[in-house]
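Q: Here's a chain of 180 amino acids. Please give me its 3D structure as C-alpha cells.
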Amino acid sequence: MWPEVFGRTAPVELDLGAGDGIYIEARARREPDRDFVAVERLLGRATKIAKKAQRGGLRNLRILRLESAYFLKNLCPPGSVEVITLRYPDPWPKRRHHGNRILNSDFAADALRTCKKGGRLQLTTDDREYFAWACREVATCPDWMPDPRWMGEDEPSSEFEEKFQQEGRAVLRKAWIRKG
C-alpha cells in the first residue's frame, strides 16, 4: 500500500492527531528519506497541514482527514509502519470520559498489529495522570516493551510544547518497541 501512496519504498511513520502540523512538517523536511502520514480529524487543521506540505514541496508527507483510531484499525496494513507517534492527545480528564481516550488497550493492540517488528509507539503528553493511565493500557499488550533509548530529545517542538514549557509544565515521553 505505502509504495503506491508515496511512489517509492521508504520507512513510514504515522503522526496521529497531527494538530497544526508543525511537528510532522519539520520531520518530513528534516528526513526526506522517510515517508510520513499525518492523520487529523479536524478539517481546518488537515487543510493547514496539506497547504504546508504543498508549499514546502514535501513529497514525503501525506495528510488524511480521518479519525486516528479508525485509520489504524481498519486502513493500515499489518506490519507496515516503523513509528506511530501520539503527541499531546486529549487526556479526557473526567473519569466518565476516559472511554474517549485514544491510547487504550484496543489502540495498543491495533498499533502492535500495524507496526513492523522492532517498530515503535511514541507518546508525548503534559498530563501526568493520562501518562500513567496510557502506560498501564500499553502494558496490557505483552509484545510492547518499553524503549528506554527514545527520550524525544531530537523531536521538533510545537506550539503546544512551547506553551507548556513557558507555563512550567513537565513534558512526559515514553516509547515502546514491538518485540519479535
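Q: Can you summarize the key feature?
A: The chain has a mean pLDDT of 93.
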